[in-house]
Amino acid sequence: MTYAPMMVPGPRPNRTLRTVLIVVGALLAVCCVVGTCVGLWLYRSVKDSVEPVRAATTAFIDDVQAGNYPGAYGRLCDRVRDTMTQEDFARVQAAQLKISSYEITGVNVNNYNGRVTGTVTVQMVQQATGASFTQGMALVREDGQWRVCQSVTVPSRCRSRSGRWPGTP
Predict the structure, then answer these.
(1) What is the strand order of the sheet 132-142 is part of?
(2) Cα separation, 102 vs 100, whole angstroms
(3) Do 51 and 104 touch, CB atoms closer than 8 A?
(4) How far is CA 77 from the centre of its chain?
């Protein structure tokens, strides 16, 4: 008589590695979804705070460019309008060289102790000379609207298309 060995089941496969990989993959997927949602929310909130400042600056420059000085004057803050009449503003703007084109290169919005301000950097080109210059415009929020409160020309970048300073041969 021969002895028949008894069938013993093989060792159970170790599935710990597979379980750990599935859990890590699921956590990674959840983190990616949450990160994407937070990033989208942050992008929209920043865009929502910056876009009105950009629009107010664009409207002001468009009014000046079109010669609509009363419209541009209406977009100035109270502090500037208190120091300059509409006629003075129109006279000063009419005496300046016209702008042929512009590009908004930077927008910044600050909230410091509840006072919300904006700064816009604009690259402009003069129509007569072709000179390019950078201008910073300060805006404040008054009565729920953004208003231009100061504009500062940055002369260090004021050059014509030929690379020379305006007015030099």
Answers:
(1) 99-112, 115-126, 132-142, 145-159
(2) 7
(3) no
(4) 21
Helix (H) or strand (E) holding 152: strand 145-159
- 3-state DSSP assignment of residue 56: helix
Within its chain, how far is the Cα of 9 from the centroid?
Answer: 68
Return d(Cα 169, Cα 154) in angstroms, integer: 22
Cα Rg of the chain (Å, integer):
31
Identify the sign of the CA torsion 137, 141, 143, 146: positive
| Helix intervals (H) in 16-165 | 16-66, 69-74, 78-83, 86-95
Q: Token pair of 149, please?
A: 């409160």
Comparing 7-21, 63-77, 117-131, 152-166, the range with the smallest average pLDDT is: 152-166
Say whether 157 sits in a helix, a strand or coil. strand
Q: What is the pTM assigned to this prediction? A: 0.67
Tens of pLDDT, residues 88-120: 999 998 888 888 999 999 999 988 888 889 999
Instruction: Map residue 66 onto helix, strand or coil.
Output: helix
> What percent of the chain stands above pLDDT 70?
86
The letter for the amino acid at 6 is: M
Taking CA 45 as the corner, what is the angle to CA 41 and CA 47, rounded to the nearest 5 degrees? 115
Higher per-residue confidence, 163 vs 107:
107
